[in-house]
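Handover notes (outgoing to incoming on-call)

Open items:
1. Pseudouridine synthase: sequence verified, structure written out, both below. Nothing else pending on this one.
2. Nothing else urgent.
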Amino acid sequence: MIKTERKGDWILLYTPEKWVGIVLEDLFKTVLFASKKQIHLYKMEKKVLINNKPANWNLPLQKEDVIKIHLFHPVPSTIIPTFMDIDILYEDDHLIIVNKKPFIDTHPNVAEDTATLLNGTAFHVLMNGEERQIKHIHRLDRDTSGCILFAKHELVGNMLDYMLRERKIKRTYIALAHGSFPAKKGTINKPIGRDRHHATRRRISQNGKNAITHYKVIAEQKKESLSLITCSLDTGRTHQIRVHLSSIGHPLAGDTLYGGKPIFNRQALHAAKIELIHPITEEKIECYAPFIDNPAIFSGFDIYSI
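Pseudouridine synthase structure tokens:
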């Protein structure tokens, strides 16, 4: 863990042993993943201090150095805040994890769209007295529910983007799929591309992007011919779980776009759990998103068992 402290608009980072000897500029480039533009602004506006003195960016860090970054200054948001009832699973000065309801978009597709989860989360942050340009780190399909991760400032946004690319953010999904699986667990490794005959549908395509889905059968509902499964992803393609399961003859229940029967009012897919190491403090974060469908889709399943 890294010891941190907030003082007003500043964050204090107490140099851990593993940072000793690293040149300050290299720390911002390779550990904090600040962009060139961010580093330039930090330098020009003297937003980084070492032991309360203007930082020398070319010097290595010493033991007991305190790095002070002007991180929490007000940033005008381009997202129109909209009041909505949102379920916060975790929040600190740097990030927010929200339990997304189904039938709502993760983010606006056009500027006039103000009814998305990003708009609602922006309202929540503003009502807490914080003027922030928040950013979604990943997304869920409109009709999929569960964990969504947001960054509250640009620096942590860069760090979380890197973690997502490097598969350092683990997401576990719960799904109900048609049929009985021949094996209790497996991996689907098939590239996914756009379906040129449909505006939103994706398909398995040898010219598509690499996509890997792991699944595990948790239980079977033999009477309904459904299987309850968990899924995890090595990649994050649009509709990945839906396309992959459909490709092996087990479409999601309710997912009429990919061959599922309309036994539910949406595809039976829920982002149930998210795990990551906090990019600033290095604490472990583990969040579970309770089911929120009424009537229930995943009745009788203990989400905390995954």
